[in-house]
Write a structure and sequence with these properties.
This protein is of the alpha/beta class. Helix content is about 40%, strand content about 10%. It has a three-stranded antiparallel sheet with strand order 4-3-5, with helices on one face. A three-stranded parallel sheet has the order 6-7-8. α1 packs antiparallel against α5. It is elongated.
Length: about 325
């Protein structure tokens, strides 16, 4: 099983090197550029968020701080909780870590080739220490091997406390919009995080007088399982790259004909795209919908079990 794991990681590393950022990554980056992104939390380990320009480090590089400034010296000892733009909840495949001494090194192309052979490469730091111990006449110790710096199932994240503090900080900032994209909603920690964020976002609707505040959008190929009706306000069924094109940041309208033509080219169901491509449903209009001066009577019709559109469920 170890050989299979290392072979798979080597193949995956090669595929990631060839991967390119998607329209979804560009959409998240645009939100950040326009000051609309509080933070991105990702389960992906491909580091494409970093490649698109979102900072994934938890602390600023000390070399980027003027060491002659005493105030800067004090600041770099305290983490700036606004510095990290994308939190990698499951780690990344950019680095490897030793199983014994926890020394990290880049996941280079050469090491990826060794991984693809199914052989765990030894840790260079442990080998160096072993040579030194041999010279001074000390007994040998166990030499560690390199493994991807990712969080496997049932493992604790090494930066778990730090991620928890960032999440707590974000909740205190009272976000008024949450977009959940492409997750199975099966990982316990992720489920708990989404529910906590959703409650915080919905609470913001009660604290502000701004119409439309406190919305949670779920974008996924499959509809959410049972028990999530009180979590999500909108559900968009389909690929994330098509969905984000229907949620422009500044435009208030999306041409329906364009949506139909793009759905035909992509092979998606034109009806589902048409229902999703509501001319008034952009990010701006979700947060600031037009106020209806005439109260509408509540519908007595039962809500359908499946509503693959961005339309809000019947109340």
């Amino acid at each position: 099983m170890v050989n299979v794991f290392y072979s798979f990681m080597g193949e995956l590393r090669t595929l990631i090197d060839r991967a390119t950022c998607t329209p979804t990554h560009a959409f998240i980056k645009r939100l950040d550029e326009h000051g609309k992104l509080l933070r991105c939390y990702t389960q992906n380990i491909d580091s494409l968020e970093k490649r698109v320009g979102l900072e994934t480090a938890f602390v600023q590089d000390e070399d980027a701080v003027d060491s002659t400034d005493s105030a800067s010296k004090r600041r770099k000892q305290t983490m700036d909780k606004k510095f990290t733009r994308a939190v990698q909840l499951h780690g990344d495949l950019d680095t490897l870590i030793c199983t014994i001494c926890h020394t990290k090194c880049p996941f280079s192309h050469k090491l990826a080739l060794e991984f693809r052979e199914g052989t765990p490469p030894p840790c260079p730091r442990c080998k160096e220490i072993e040579v030194i111990r041999g010279i001074v006449g000390k007994r040998s110790q166990t030499t560690g091997v390199l493994r991807p710096d990712i969080v496997l199932y049932n493992e604790m994240h090494p930066q778990g406390e730090l991620i928890g503090s960032l999440n707590e900080y974000d909740l205190k900032r009272r976000p008024d919009l949450l977009i959940v994209i492409g997750t199975s909603l099966k990982i316990p920690g992720i489920k708990r995080m989404i529910r906590e964020m959703s409650r915080c976002v919905h609470d913001s609707a009660q604290r502000t007088q701004r119409a439309g505040a406190g919305k949670v959008i779920f974008i996924n190929r499959d509809e959410p399982p049972r028990g999530w009706d009180d979590v999500f306000d909108y559900f968009i069924e389909g690929d994330a790259d098509h969905a984000v094109n229907l949620l422009p940041i500044h435009r208030d309208k999306v041409a329906l004909n364009d949506g139909e033509s793009s759905s035909a080219e992509s092979g998606q169901d034109p009806m589902s795209i048409t229902r999703i491509c509501n001319p008034v449903m952009s990010i701006d209009r979700i947060c600031n919908p037009p106020v209806d001066p005439v109260p509408r009577a509540k519908s007595t019709a039962k809500k359908p079990k499946s509503l693959p559109s961005i339309l809000p469920p019947a109340r």
